[in-house]
Amino acid sequence: MNSEQAEPSERRSGKIGPVEIRAARPSDAEAITSIANLSGFRAGTLRLPFQSIEETQQWLDKPAPGAINLVAVLDGQIVGNAGLRRLTGRRIHVGQIGMGVHDDFTGRGVGSALLAALIDTADNWLAIKRVELTVYVDNAPAIRLYEKFGFETEGRLRAFAFRNGEYVDAFTMARLRL
Questions:
Q1: CB-based contacts of 136-141 (< 8 A; 24+ apart in sequence)
Q2: Cα distance between residue 37 and residue 52, in whole Å
Q3: Domain spanning 16-133: which superfamily?
Q4: What is the C-alpha separation between 44 and 32, in angstroms, rounded?
Q5: What pTM was computed for the model?
Q6: What are phi and psi of 168, to 5 degrees?
């Protein structure tokens, strides 16, 4: 059985080869939309179902000022994306991140590669002191990943978002560079 025929759990066993991390391009809109519409990817985000290529294209064509938008590429396929947005004014020392990994590639190092690139950018290029994020309380793999990179839970946001017919809580987590 080749990897295309394998069950998702079989495809996820073990680490994968080197993942290329690069800046997202406007030409990535279709691939990013495809993974954003996967049920597992979407469940960890605030995205609605049925995201259109046009919505993604607009986001890629007009990123927020100073935003860093990355993709993870494996064997020519986009398997994840992540972003870092620096805040302004009295919170200019803060960056907010968001990320997601293709359903078939979770637990295989893609998220670690994306997060490492974001943290390196925040620490070594932007002098960001505080990186923060929110994560659903039932997303244990993501929470473990963030903790591995030094994020700590700072609070619980009750009824944070409406997902799949119910309100779900989220943790607010941050990593401080002292």
A1: 136/43, 136/44, 136/160, 136/161, 136/163, 136/168, 136/169, 136/170, 136/171, 137/168, 137/169, 137/170, 137/171, 138/168, 139/44, 141/106, 141/107
A2: 9
A3: Gcn5-related N-acetyltransferase (GNAT) (3.40.630.30)
A4: 15
A5: 0.88
A6: -125, 150
pLDDT in tens, the chain (178 residues): 333 333 343 344 456 778 999 999 999 999 999 999 999 999 999 999 999 999 999 999 998 888 999 999 999 999 999 999 999 999 999 999 999 999 999 999 999 999 999 999 999 999 999 999 999 999 999 999 999 999 999 999 999 999 999 999 999 999 999 8
Phi, psi at 29, each rounded to 5°: -55, -45
Token couple for 119? 């943290």
